[in-house]
Amino acid sequence: MITVGIDAHKDSYTLVAIDEVGKRVAALTVPARKAGHTRMLEWLDGFGMVKVAVEDCRHLTRALEASLLLAGHQVLRVHTRLMAGMRRSSREPGKSDPIDAEAVARVALREDHLPTAHLAGPDRDLKLFSDHRKRLVEHRTGLQAKLRWFLHELVPDLEVPSRGIRRPAVFEQITRAIAGVDGAVAEIARDLLADIVALTQRITAIERQLTAIVKVEYPMLLAVPGMGALGAAAIIGETAGVNRFTSKDAFARFNGTAPIPVWSGNNVKVRLSRGGNRRINTSLHMAAVTQQRLGGEGAVYFAKQVSAGKTRVEALRLLRRRISDRVFAALRQDEAARAETVHRIPITLNTTLKSILTAAA
């Protein structure tokens, strides 16, 4: 079987085909445009059965992956750190697009269990909406801080609640307080307040969208105690497909809830992982805090660990890992349910078509 590696850039795609022993067979460079996609697919058809691998730069390869997947090709994703090691072991020195594409192909030929690309689904929508909401919240926070200093100058007696400049009642309170004040500071403060109000409305609308998608597509994840819609959306978007993880332990290493071994000899020790995906880790932490605060199974487990001699921080870490395992299982169930629904649709369509043809005969 021929293996094809692709090095993607904003303006061009470079493809290199290698045989089963890693020898270069052919190479092609096409523009990263619709015509280039057509030329690339025609070139791939000339090899018959091929394995296609792309460098994992999804901001550059989304359209490329979609064209390949719609044409019926399986697309593997190769992490850049794997390419670096393959380039160093190559007999051809230097760095170029063909060298990088050949490194991608050789990694795909050598490595098993590489991530597989798939067409965008609700998980990408959740990722995009969640990231957009995060940017809007950060922008609003900066405006709120600036507005507070201006309010301290204009109306120092005004009591503004902590984290309160996002509620309609506080908006009205500030509007009344600076309504009759003249000057540049007051005018800028009114502009800042208007921007904060508009941002808050947009943030609220995005939160409704996230909640609606999560409720429909990931009900099992949302059923995890302590898990809210925003935390679930962040986890789904950052996980990018739970089926790429072989076990709950691999998922825990990815999100930073698995401890790191630091021992030698008979003295077994571990330390806290400071790595992993911090957004997922934060969502799991908030779920753990919520469980511990509201009671139930999580609070019982937390109390049991504290009574066994663990500190409250250590007990919370153990609860966070426990929730990670629960989240992994819930994501697997939701993904399986979605896959079953997708596979069921063609059968229904074929059955309907067959009944129509039978009636017409």
Automatic annotation (TrEMBL):
- Pfam families, from UniProt? DEDD_Tnp_IS110, Transposase_20
Q: Which residue ranges does the record assign to the Transposase IS110-like N-terminal domain?
A: 4-156
Q: Where is the signal peptide?
A: none
For the Transposase IS116/IS110/IS902 C-terminal domain, which residue ranges apply? Answer: 221-294
**Listed PANTHER family:** TRANSPOSASE FOR INSERTION SEQUENCE ELEMENT IS1111A, TRANSPOSASE FOR INSERTION SEQUENCE ELEMENT IS1547
What's the name of the protein? Answer: IS110 family transposase
Species annotation: Microbacterium bandirmense
